[in-house]
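Usage

Read records sequentially. Each one opens with the input sequence:
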Amino acid sequence: MADKNLNRITADPAIFGGKPIVRGMRFSVELILSLLAKGETVESILDDYPELEVADIRACLAYAHAVVANDQIEAVKVS
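and closes with the structure output:
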């Protein structure tokens, strides 16, 4: 069963060439994961990007896990 957090991840060909993004906004999953990988804390990301929510960051991590685990990601809405 797909992680319910994946519902927060969308893909729109008009935004970043269809890369996975958070809730249709111009925040790519790739950006959030890159910030986390560089050691940024969830709190600092939320301070820098107040439009984001903790659940959005969890959704990015759930998406990354699904990709690495070869899980199905049908929950990602494509516009």
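Summary fields computed downstream for this record:
- The chain is about 40% helix and 10% strand.
- The two ends are 22 Å apart (CA to CA).
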